[in-house]
Amino acid sequence: MLLEIEDLSVSYRNDEGEVNPAAIDVNLTLDRGEVLGIVGESGSGKSTVSMSVARLLPSPPAFYPKGRILFDGTDMLTLPLPELRKIRGRRIGVIFQDPMGSLSPLHRIGDQLVETILLHEKMAKPAARAMALEWLGKVGIPDPAVRARAYPHELSGGMQQRVMIAMGLMLGPDLVIADEPTTALDVTIQAQVLRLMRDLHQANSGVLLITHDLGVVSQMATKLAVMKDGRVIETSSDPAAFFAAPKHPYAQGLVREARRMELK
Ligand SMILES: Nc1ncnc2c1ncn2[C@@H]1O[C@H](COP(=O)(O)OP(=O)(O)O)[C@@H](O)[C@H]1O
Ligand SMILES: [Mg+2]
Q: Alpha-carbon distance 159 to 48, whole Å?
């Protein structure tokens, strides 16, 4: 199994010492070739769980009272930092909601891609540069050689998100974590960006796709989990069957609401 989340609980401790349990007893699995969609309203714990997998939550305030996150058999929660860094970016690719949060505003996008490649691959700089340009082309950025010299703020939101996708996928990660990858984008380009993600990730990798948009899940996911108040309240390995007949009353409400929005 590529990813096994076992009895995972994650809490945040604030300055007053109060503890906010954000994920409670979460059990999820993801195999190669699968796309696991995690859905749920804002604040239900989706990002807490997905960022825990790459150990990207600042700790403190986050801490892990309980559970294990096995990535290809390795427990991410106890992995020493140097090994964690080797896995992140290389074997686990992360695509965030907000590209500006993870692209550096101070460096040209081409340089950022090259730097990431060189961090993980034994490759000469010209080869890394060629690879970066190739990926800018793959994600649909016109004139890669010219655009590579741009700073992130010189690109539109959609173009920034394409750069993030190149960054997340170019090293061929075994696991891709995409946390609301299209939420910040114009509806007209959301579908394009999702299609890119679907087409460019390796077929034998696993994808953890976080969204509050059930439409996205129905298009992309091979299995799904519904979260509410930090807990997984329903899972399904057959999204079509789930949409036809969700079991949990809360999930029924979500599906009804999504249908209503679709009809608008
Ligand atoms: N850095 C943080 N410090 C304290 N509480 C946080 C932090 N990040 C998230 N939370 C809390 O954890 C809960 C789950 O949040 P989150 O995982 O971001 O949900 P989602 O991604 O589903 O919107 C919320 O109550 C949120 O306020
Ligand atoms: Mg979130």
A: 26
